[in-house]
Write a structure and sequence with these properties.
The structure is a homodimer.
Chain A: H1 8-26, E1 31-32, H2 34-41, H3 45-53, E2 65-66, H4 67-77, E3 84-89, H5 93-99, E4 109-115, E5 125-126, E6 129-132, H6 137-144, E7 146-151, H7 155-167, E8 172-175, E9 188-191, H8 198-210
Parallel strand pairs in A: 3-4, 3-7, 4-6, 7-8, 8-9
Antiparallel strand pairs in A: 1-2, 5-6
Chain lengths: ~210, ~210
């Protein structure tokens, strides 16, 4: 499988740049420099230029970037020029929180189903979604064209849910369960650690206190 | 305020290295090379060496690193050679999920209080914690030596909660509300976007499909 070697940090920043460009575009701004993007999102101008350089030549020296063009291009790079339907597995506290989290229903993303195997949860409404039993998954995957699965079940059930997603043709998995899952190579999978930024906080506080080690 | 200019990506990896070193130490491994660390966590050996070089000279050429020493040192760098008590604000679905999330109760971290202003939630038990009203916060901050606040309230209440944290002397804030908060410069604050990795998935899938733009 041929994949472009772009650092994930670059992709993450590209996502942030595209949100900034959306805001500029909404405000009627037509041209932007790498310096303005840098200031708008809090990185260095050199970083912006380096990140964009992964994807070809953009902008005109001394003039900057056309906002609409660059926005359209960044969205295309991010794969957001097409719709993505998601399914959330697990209608416990985390699943509920994710169902109403705006980040999963913006841009090209759309939560198309929420599933659980707990009879006390099945049929419950979360916004305009109704919690479905797992055996409805194969049918809803097809009718809603679900391509991404989100795992918000306990560790003990996470692998089983991942297997079900793979079996039903999902292409990507976002895993909130704190466990490493086995999936075939053709499945894109990323784990979300809710606590990972805690140690960035303590690192910074520690350094302030110590000044040096 | 003097702070060391270390990229957050480096700090994040340092946190990952230290977890790997903990595992090695538990398994009785005493020496490790940068190549072994690299393979264990999925980055390049050059990246490991570059990351560690921010903090001084480690290891012996041809011999590698002493696991216990490097672990101790990375924990110290991360500020984890001291205890950190957390308070979680918001006992809704997300707050509940965070209270039981193991990442907030490992290593040096300990959830010492959960707060909400909703009378239907106050007094409820989450594990061995009882949801407290906001006006108990000043007293519990002191008795539990709480230093980090976690915001899991709706956007509309997030700034007010941040102000309360600052007023009561917290040093750092982890913010799950999708809104930018104003806090004084001496407060360390980081936002957690639960959906940010979605676009890494679609980026990778898009590139596979297109092979090139």
């Amino acid at each position: 499988m041929k994949t472009l070697r772009v650092p994930e940090a670059t992709v993450t920043r590209l996502s942030i740049y595209s949100r900034f460009l959306e805001r500029l575009d909404k405000n009627g701004v037509t041209t932007v420099s790498s310096g303005e993007i840098a200031e708008g999102v809090g990185v260095s101008p050199a970083q912006v230029r380096k990140d964009l350089a992964y994807f070809g030549e953009f902008g005109t020296r001394g003039v900057g970037y056309n906002v609409k063009d660059l926005l359209k291009y960044t969205l295309k790079i991010l794969g957001l020029d097409q719709p993505w339907s998601l399914a959330i597995f697990g209608a416990g506290n985390l699943g509920f929180a994710l169902c109403t989290y705006r980040g999963f229903n913006i841009r090209s993303f759309h939560i198309a189903g929420v599933f659980d195997n707990d009879p006390t949860r099945i049929g419950k409404k979360i916004g305009n979604l109704e919690v479905q039993p797992l055996d409805k998954f194969p049918e809803i995957v097809k009718s809603e064209n679900i391509r991404i699965g989100v795992i918000a079940v306990p560790v003990s059930a996470a692998q089983e849910v991942a297997d079900l997603m793979v079996k039903n043709g999902l292409e990507a998995i976002l895993n909130f369960a704190p466990v490493a899952l086995n999936v075939p190579d053709h499945i894109e999978i990323r784990n979300v650690d809710l606590s990972v930024k805690l140690e960035i906080l303590t690192f910074n506080l520690g350094f302030r206190a110590a000044q040096n080690l």
